[in-house]
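Homework help thread (please don't just give me the answer)

Our assignment gives two proteins as sequence + structure token strings and asks us to describe the second one. The first is just a warm-up. Here they are:
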Amino acid sequence: MPMYEYSCTKCGQRFEKLEKKAAAETVVCPNCGSTEVNKEFSSFSSTGSVSIEYCGSEG
């Protein structure tokens, strides 16, 4: 299930919610109970490994 980020337009609370893709349920702010929320852009995480090479100077 994808994780979505929301922000409440009434109290400003930012929160995340796991949702089923096909579900069209009303999202409620956990802080104030408002349904006036906006879906925010989410950043994606990776489960792979990343190799970073460092070329330092010696001397």
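The one we have to describe:
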Amino acid sequence: METDRRPVTSLREQALGIIRDAITAGELDEERIYSAAGLAKQLGMSLSPVREAMMSLVTEGTVEAVPNRGFRLVPVTWSDLEEITRVRVLLAVPAVRQLCDRAAGHVGSESAEPADPVADGSSGASEGASGAPDGAEAADEPLRIQLEQLREHAAATAIAAEAGDATGFFTHDRRFHEALLEYGLGRRAADISLRLRDQSRVFRPQGAVDEVNTTSARELSAIVDLIEQGRADEVTELVTRNLYFFKRTAPVPDES
């Protein structure tokens, strides 16, 4: 059983997470109206937290309420996916660049004085195996911890993808990108990106999606590696490609 360090959540939050993952994975049909009671029975949960979760999704714009009937997914089109992804990229790129700067020692303690290579007789800062200057890790201990947490999320995502566990894949992939944005830009940026992510959908048959899941999951560990090495241009390209996951799972529209 996986050990999860996240704090214990309420029944509402548990229901919200399960329903979000089901929507993202394409397990709920846009054409169907779902009652809170029916979803509660399907999830094996009591009615109140499921109803509260669905109302939260209404507020977020992911579902809409149908009076006297239940809830329906807000339709997402090909152009919607493109717009959602573009905005998420606008947030993710500065986030990973900020983390790369920290890893390279460009952003440290405000009180730290820059080393003088002439005064200490050296020709410049030496570099460790990661390509970052020696001492950069010590100057930013929180970053080391954050990278470890990102690696844990990346590993859990890959394990789920390899096992064909779509729900687990989407759960851990969401946590990875949530942490990436929060560590790079802050909580508000993470919340904005997650809300957009939760409006994305998978459209292809499960077999095709499984292959995309595995490729996408493997990219997460590479993203962390590139951040640790301070390779901003390369990680910018990779995180952009990774965020286009949902476009890779969407059928190409017929332009004829």
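TA reply:
I won't write it for you, but here's a hint about the kind of observation we're looking for: The first helix runs from residue 11 to 24.
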